[in-house]
Amino acid sequence: MTREDGAVSQIPTPQPDRIGPHADEPHERSIGGLLNRLRAAVLGANDGIVSVAGIVMGVAGATSHRDTIVVAGVAGLVAGALSMGAGEYVSVSTQRDTERALLDKERRELAEDPEDELAELAGLYRDKGLTDALALEVAQQLTAHDALAAHAETELGIDPDDLTSPWQAALASMVAFTLGAALPLLTITLFPPGVRVWVTVVAVALALAVTGYASAASGDAPRVRAVVRNIAGGLLAMVVTYLIGGLVGRGLG
User: Fold this and answer.
1) Residue 8, strand partner residues
2) How far is CA 212 from the centre of its chain?
3) C-alpha atoms less than 13 angstroms from C-alpha of 251 in its C-beta half-sphere
4) Which helix (H) or strand (E) holds 19?
5) Which of 151, 153, 154 is nearest to 162 (CA)?
6) Cα distance between residue 236 and residue 30, in whole Å
7) Secondary structure class of 3 (helix, strand, coil)
8) Cα diameter, the chain
9) Residues 6 or more apart from 130 whose CB is under 8 A from it?
């Protein structure tokens, strides 16, 4: 661009590290990962609350014996926590294996045909709106810095240095489920027979309100709708299992 005095003004060139996979907020990927883990923990706790509340309410509908309710509740807590942990481990392990396979494929392609890979990366940046020249320059600089990371983040949406740990995911699921399950188990066993069911219903409803709100907040979804839906689902589960427990208890008696 030429100014009126004849001098050529300098147009700032976009910095490569602000383009492409890094164009958003500097820590958007980390924040997104944290929110996903928080949401998973909230949902795990929610599962623990509803699952064990249903179990202990069903048994309470069949019998008033505290020991029987405790045994059923503890069994449900342990089985549910182990199931959640195992399921999360298998799921994340499969995801991690897939990500590693994709990264290995990308490494081979970079080693066998680096020119085509560079052209492919530049094409991805052109698709994001950069000019041909700038897209090629960005692709060249990012390739020189870390070719695998550039391709993995832009093509695959994977951070090679931040693959999810299946053991961490399994442990987090187990802990979240256990914490959620502990609430109905404690209320149904610690309070006297005359009020234990109602105390459990109120405690579970309040806990589900909290988890529903937290889940919605972590995903920036409507809070009230999520809270109402969560409480309604939990109450329905408790009512159904209590009634079925009562019917089974009378049938066996």
Assistant:
1) 2
2) 14
3) 6
4) none
5) 153
6) 37
7) coil
8) 102
9) 19, 138
| DSSP H stretches of helix in 63-160 | 66-112, 114-127, 132-151
Domain ranges of the chain: 52-112+167-248
Q: What is the pTM of this model?
A: 0.74
- Give the Cβ contact number of residue 128 at 10 Å: 14
Tell me how far CA of residue 64 lies from CA of 60, 191, 193, in angstroms.
Answer: 6, 12, 7
239 membership: H or E segment, kind and range: helix 223-252
More confident residue, 9 or 32: 32
Q: Which residues does residue 2 pair with via DSSP β-bridges, in sequence order?
A: 8
Report the C-alpha gap between 204 and 242 in whole angstroms. 14
Q: Which residues of 184-209 are buried (b: 16+ CB within 10 A; e: fewer)?
A: bbebbbeeeeeebbebbbebbbebbb
Backbone angles phi, psi at 8, to 5 degrees: -95, 120
What's the CA gap between 96 and 99, in Å, rounded?
5
pLDDT tens digits, 120-139: 888 888 888 888 888 888 88
CA atoms in the 13 A half-sphere facing the CB of 52: 36
Asked if 79 and 211 count as a contact pair (C-beta separation under 8 A), the reply is no
